[in-house]
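In this section we walk through a basic example: taking a raw amino acid sequence and producing a predicted 3D structure, encoded as discrete structure tokens. The instruction is simple. Fold the sequence below.
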Amino acid sequence: MLFRSEEIGTLMGVRGLALEGLERHGADVVMDFDVTANRPDCMSVIGIAREIAAAYQLPLRSDDRSNGRAPDVLRANGRLNIAIDAPELCGRYVGAAATVKIGPSPQWMQDRLKMCGIRPISNIVDITNYVLLELGHPMHAFDRDKVRGDRVVVRRAKNGETITTLDGKARTLTGDMLVIADAEHAEAIGGVMGGAGSEVSDRTTRIIFEAAWFKPASIRATSKAMGLKTEASMRFERGMDITAPPRAMARALQLLEQIGGGTFAGDATDAYPAPYQAKTIHLDRARISGLLGMDVPDAAVEKILDRKSTRLNSSHANISYA
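The resulting token sequence is shown next.
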């Protein structure tokens, strides 16, 4: 069943996702939706796809190229040295090591990135940006040989500590900001931008992929204080899914293998100080009619909830309807 992009845009508009623009690129169409601040789950291709699938009462198709293996690629064994010293600002940090051969990403990946306004850089950086667009979860890659002590420390910055970020600017940090550091220095501003000191280059042969969850208010405050808004900070400050980092990491490792950019080295750590406890969300049928001003049949409500709940990880929340 095929639907015109204009029709999809109209349907999504009445569901709170206004279509801002359409751009045709040969047989492809780029749809630009205005996503409100309370819907960070829609800041991705998969997020919009879930909404469209629910609206048209269609199943959400998984990525056929992964052959169902993507979630199984990551095997966290704790052998990568990662420490979270500021768990109040970083609730989860997943790191995975890989051996790589830096080069251009395949044309299909470059084309998709460019259609979404992102400049291709290299296969490794392009993978992190591809995962960002596809799954909505920001990632970063460090040159492992530039990480002193082969250790990742997630901590608060020291007052007056400095870092040169990937945009080439030297920045002075304060103690309320979160950094990703090695054994000696800050190597990234957590959730905002990486540092030039551990940047992936043409000479990189070993990397550490990062996928994490950061406290939204902290990222918002840091981004505002520095006048630095990035694709990562815009997502983290709205609230990412704390169950998502392993899925993002698995997808990145699967893409790494798929495009021939490298191999997962086998060492990975999922630092998760206080695992999220699943909650039950109660939906009152009387409240539905009160808010919408119309009655929705129980069967329709249950069907919508069943489809919408695909955007929640099974360990994240349960939905009850009464």
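Looking at the output, two observations stand out. The chain has ten helices and 15 strands. The two ends are 34 Å apart (CA to CA). In the next section we compare this with other chains.
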